[in-house]
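[step 3/7] fold_predict: job queued, chain A
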Amino acid sequence: MPLAVYVLGLAVFALGTSEFMLSGLLPEVADDLDVSIPTAGLLISAFAIGMVVGAPLLAAATQRLPRRLTLIGLLVVFGLGHVVGALAPTYAVLFACRVLSALACAGFWAVGATVAVSLVPTGARARALAVMIGGLSTATVVGVPAGAVLGQHLGWRSAFWAVALMTAVGLVGVVLFVPRTEPGHGEGRPPRLRAEVRMYRDPRVWLAIVTIALFAAGTMCFFSYLAPLLTDVAGLGEGWVPVTLVLYGAGALLGTVIGGRIADAHMFGTLYAGLGAATGILVLLALTAHSPAAAVTLSGLLGFGAFLCSPGLNARVFNVAGATAPTLAGATVTSAFNSGNTLGPWIGGLVISSGLGYVATAWVGAALVAGSVVGVAFQARDASRSRVVAGGSSESEATTNRRERVRERVRER
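[step 4/7] structure written:
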């Protein structure tokens, strides 16, 4: 892996810490800004929605700008958003800062993923994306718990200052180590938004999007309500919540590393393994949630299963769309994941409000993730047919994409 890819992962660590740290700071934020905890919780939803909307908008708006310059600008905006957030005198100001930070975060994810895959051979895309996802996994293990500790001892604003500092470190890394790149497909040809938008005519792209959204919604449907499940259902003390979160994050980091190393060579096998494992673990959690040992152990294993397939899910979109739409491919991945991240907690809330209880979120989550397994099955069948039609089973999907790219150029002319 080029050093620049690891620098992008470092920056994602700061972004990921910010995205999830408020889940451990809501009481402090609510008390300081004189709002209710549910109102403070809207700050999390605002970030997720900003990610969904911001990824395609920022990717399109910056499409003709040099990608390195775009990454620098987005990190500057993200860091300043946290400086203003740390100084926010009112809830409204903090809410606006969260939306602005989410837009910058979404843009960085979209453009950063495009840069990462452009720096490596086609056969190493999943590994490169795994490094970026590893930054997010590490944030769940280290950044989010550390933010909660800072908030409890030095106030919630200290966590925002810490993210601003980490963002500055990531900014220096991007300036020093990410190579200068011109906009385009790497061949001196400027990108054309109209041409890239054609990717959405491809049913393979939509199938990949739906698969990602179902997976993310299923895992977040359960994970969003993990804390009350541990305390109210499993009967554990509150001190076990951060311990379980660390186990989940450690499993996620391990799954990302392994998934990134094997997904390029065994794309669909990795997706089946990760999504199938996540589905089975959620079913086991629903059956054994009243057992403290089972609840803690299985939650850690869920992190492994969920993130084992994440590099492959990311790379799949680039495999089917990256040849003709390198910019929007990264934006599409970001929006797909965050669409699921937004829908999952909402669906889980509906399940709980209906009186089915916290355990039911595991059942519903398992059903949603199982739907993503079906999506992978359709993708695998389609990929197999494409190889045969394109010239025999020995031809790779990447070769097929190169042929599609040539045809796209002909149409543009």
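[step 5/7] annotate
DSSP finds 17 helices and no strands in the chain.
The two ends are 36 Å apart (CA to CA).
exit 0
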